[in-house]
Design brief:
The longest helix has about 45 residues. The protein starts with 10 loop residues before the first helix and ends in an 11-residue tail after the last helix. By secondary structure, it is of the alpha/beta class.
Length: about 475
């Protein structure tokens, strides 16, 4: 019926279409129209009823009201697309709005992972603080060297072969079990290769947690830190629930168990012992953390922190310094100490062997000025690397997370090897200036040692690594004497 358009999708419609489209189509619009006009009269009445009106318009078979019908058909289809697009956009906006509401709701509900907002300092304030820090570090360095010169001169009067010994403990996360085991093994050595009483101990990250026990140096102290690293608790590292990824959080994880166990060991009694061992700054215990504000490493005087703990009856500052040095960025929370924000000492350098100084302020130059007729004692650096010294070879899959993780790992390993080479270069330059003989010895996790699995702070793996360290520490030939 010509007065009514139908779009019904049934067998009659399909049959009508097959008759129309089954004919050979020409490539001209006028021919199409003639083609449709030639086909439509041959359709049955039922088939003709099911031909879409747009086809009849092309065929010229719908004379009455044809333009209005076409416009209505076009409008109907336009409305359908408009409704579809609007539905999609409104749905997407609803999802986004829901996510925004959920985000701010979670922020207000879950506030446990955040530190207090800090006052922003001006550039002038930060510059002044940086300059003051550099001056204080240089002054402390000169003071320490002057004390070392005086102490060693007195010791040289009793023992002409007296040496100046420094122990440098590197970072390495759970690989710190190697250093703890190595020191315990070294404590079993007797004779000329026995564990010396160090004039100075420095620790970074995992090495910072070991450093106070190595500074005290008794077998009981070394056994205590070895037991601690051989028995990591499940709550040493705990992810911050299901919303750990919120950018307002200070870190992905927290370390409640590590804080508990460390503070139970580094208590007021231990602070008293450290203060006595470093009496009058004759021995130094330095813990490096990274000042995130100024972007520099800071070597905290842990002996001074221990004296403050004794004076106040509160050893929290001492343990906070150790935790700041071990605060892996983004993973463990940073620590705010005296208005500054500190994170892992390994950001600045993975082991600490002194800051920049003028040649006239070095140990050898100071000794020659004060005791020109006495031979300059030998200085010995003992470096324990709580990791492989070289990256372990792997076949890496070309995904961005794998590439980023591997790149950070390689950069840290490379920086550590470069730091060791720099220390060897300093030793050679010191000898060439006539400022005394300097020996550098180092040891690292053997490249042949393999962890049991990829889990961090895995008890069995840490025990295995502690045992490997103890085995190597008991053997004086484990020390390397050439730069890597």
């Amino acid at each position: 019926m010509h007065g009514h358009c139908s779009n019904r999708d049934n067998s009659a419609t399909r049959k009508a279409w097959s008759k129309i489209t089954g004919c050979r189509a020409k490539q001209n619009g006028d021919v199409y129209s003639g083609h449709f006009r030639s086909v439509l009269p041959n359709l049955s009445a039922h088939e003709n009823e099911n031909v879409p009106c747009t086809v009849r318009v092309l065929a010229g078979c719908d004379r009455a009201g044809t333009g209005a019908q076409v416009m209505r058909e076009v409008a109907r289809r336009s409305h359908w697309w408009r409704r579809t697009i609007l539905s999609f956009v409104s749905g997407a906006l609803s999802v986004i709005l829901l996510l925004v509401v959920a985000y701010f709701g979670i922020r207000n509900f879950d506030t446990g992972g955040r530190l207090a907002e800090r006052r922003a300092k001006s550039e002038a304030e930060l510059a002044a603080e940086f300059a003051a820090d550099m001056k204080d570090a240089a002054d402390e360095n000169r003071t320490d060297i002057a004390h070392h010169v005086q102490t060693l001169y007195e010791r040289q009067q009793r023992d002409p072969n007296a040496t100046l010994d420094f122990l440098l403990l590197s970072g390495g996360g759970d690989r710190g079990a190697f250093g703890a085991g190595f020191l315990l093994g070294w404590a079993s050595v007797e004779g000329g290769n026995a564990l010396p009483k160090f004039d100075g101990v420095s620790g970074v990250s995992a090495g910072a947690l070991i450093a106070p026990f190595a500074f005290l140096g008794t077998k009981a102290d070394l056994e205590m830190i070895d037991r601690l690293v051989r028995d990591p608790k499940p709550d040493w590292v705990v992810r911050r629930g299901m919303f750990f990824f919120l950018p307002e959080n200070a870190s992905f994880a927290d370390v409640p168990g590590l804080v508990r166990d460390l503070r139970s060991k580094v208590d007021l009694k231990m602070a008293e012992r450290i203060a006595r061992a470093g009496f009058d700054r004759r021995r130094v215990l330095l813990i490096q953390a990274t000042d995130i504000d100024n972007g520099t490493g800071r070597a905290f005087d842990a002996v001074a922190a221990a004296r403050e703990a004794v004076a106040t009856g509160d050893p929290k500052l001492l343990s906070d310094i150790l935790l700041a040095s071990a605060a892996i960025p983004g993973v463990f929370p940073p620590r705010e100490i005296q208005g500054r924000l500190y994170a892992d000492g390994g950001i600045a350098s993975n082991f600490f062997y002194g800051g920049p100084m003028d040649e006239s302020d070095t140990f050898g130059a100071t000794w020659r000025r004060q005791h020109p007729n006495a031979p300059i004692p030998k200085t010995r650096y003992w470096v324990i690397i709580n990791e492989y010294i070289q990256p372990t070879p792997v076949t890496l899959q070309p995904t961005w997370p794998a590439i980023i993780e591997r790149s950070i790992y390689v950069s840290v390993r490379s920086a550590e090897a470069i730091a060791l080479r720099h220390l060897y270069a300093i030793a050679e330059a010191t000898r060439l200036r006539g400022d005394g003989d300097v020996e550098v010895r180092w040891v690292a996790v053997p490249q042949t040692w393999k962890p049991l699995n990829d889990r961090r702070f895995d008890k069995e793996t840490m025990r295995l690594l502690s045992a490997e360290g103890r085995r190597l520490g008991a053997n004086p030939n484990s020390w390397m004497t050439k730069a890597p």
